[in-house]
Amino acid sequence: MIELEGLTKHYGDKVAVDDLTFTVRPGIVTGFLGPNGAGKSTTMRMMLDLDNPTAGTVRIDGKHYRQLRDPLTYIGALLEAKSVHGGRSAANHLLCLAQSNGIPRGRVSEVLDTVGLSAVAKKRAKGFSLGMSQRLGIAAALLGDPRVLLFDEPVNGLDPEGIHWIRNLMKNLASQGRTVFVSSHLMSEMALTAEHLIVIGQGRLMADTSMRDFIQQNSRSYVRMRSPEREKLLDLLHSEGIDAAVAGNGSLEVDGVPADRLGELAAAHQLVLHELSPQQASLEEAFMQLTAESVEYHAHDGEPVPAQAGAAPGARTPEPAGARPGEPQPSGWGADWQKKRS
Ligand SMILES: Nc1ncnc2c1ncn2[C@@H]1O[C@H](COP(=O)(O)OP(=O)(O)OP(=O)(O)O)[C@@H](O)[C@H]1O
Hints:
The protein is an alpha/beta fold. It has helices at 40-47, 90-99, 106-114, 130-142, 160-175, 187-193, 211-217, 230-239, 259-268, 283-291, and strands spanning 2-11, 14-24, 29-33, 55-60, 75-78, 148-152, 179-183, 196-201, 204-210, 222-226, 244-246, 252-255, 275-279, 297-299, 337-339. The strands form four sheets. The protein has a six-stranded mixed sheet with strand order 5-6-7-3-8-9, sandwiched between helices. It has a four-stranded antiparallel sheet with strand order 11-12-10-13, with helices on one face. It has a three-stranded antiparallel sheet with strand order 2-1-4, with helices on one face. The radius of gyration is 25 Å and the shape is elongated.
C-alpha cells in the first residue's frame, strides 16, 4: 500500500501540497482527482522521491522510497509519457531500466507484448505517437512486476481501443492484489475504472471515499416522472405528502421517494406515466459540485472573444472587469479568462 502522512510541498510562497494524509489500499483501483493545479502530479512525484517533501512522509509497503532496493520491483509509474530518451529504441529503453533494477532481460519482450508494442520494439522512441509513448511508459511501469502502480493521466493520447485496454489492465492489476493509483481528468473513464477516490483541491484533501458514496454525497438523486396527466399526478403526490418540482421540460422531479413506490401510486390511481426514471448524478457533476470553490483557473462559458477590430497584432486586450490596475493580464484569449481570486 501507499501511506501518506502530513505530506506537504511548498514552492516558495506557493503551497502545492498541504498536509495530505491518506492510504491507498491494495486490491482496488483508487482514482486521484483534483482540478488543474490541485497538486496531483506533485504528490505523485513525491511518492516516487522525484521531489522532496517540505514536511511529512510517504511509505511504499511500509518503507521510504530510498530504502527500496531495486525500486522498480516495488513501484512502477507512468508520469510523463514523453520523458523517454528519444534516441533509444523501445526495447533498449526498457533494457536499460531492467539492468539498473536487477530485472531479467526476458521481461522486456514480455512487457512489450503486454502493451502491444512488440512490432515496434526496435524503433526509436522519438518517432512514437503520444499513444505509443503512453504504452511504452506503461510497459516501463510493469517491467519490475511491482506490487504498487501509479498512473498519471494514463489514457492521454490513447484511442478508444487503447482506453478500453488500459481500463481492463488497471482492473486486472488490482484484482491480482496490487495497489493501483491513477489520476485522470476524464471523469467518465474514472467512473468506470476506480472503486475508491482521493480528491484534492488546492493541495488539501477533500474526499477519501468510495466512488459510490462520493457520488451520493456530492450530488442530488431524484426520480423523474412524465405524465400526460401532470396536474392530476401533482395533486396525487401532494395528497400523499410528496413534494414534486416541475422541471423546465414539464417533467416532475421527486426527491427521497423510491421509483417503485411512485409507480405503484400512479398505477393505483390509473394515471398514465410516460417516464419513471431514477436519476443519479454523474461523477463529473459530483466532482464539480465538491471542487467548485477550489478551482483555481476558470474559463467563461460561451464563444471565444474575437480580436478587436482594428487592433494591431499583439495589442493588449482590455482589462477584464474587476482587474486590479497595474496587474499583468493574460494575453490573447486571456481576456476571456481570469485567475479566480478566492
Ligand atoms: N517545480 C515547480 N515550481 C513551482 N511551482 C510548481 C512546480 N511544480 C508545480 N508547481 C505548482 O504547484 C501547484 C500544483 O501543481 P501540480 O502540477 O502538482 O498540479 P496538478 O493537480 O497535477 O495539475 P494538472 O491537473 O493541471 O496537471 C500548481 O500551482 C503549480 O503551478
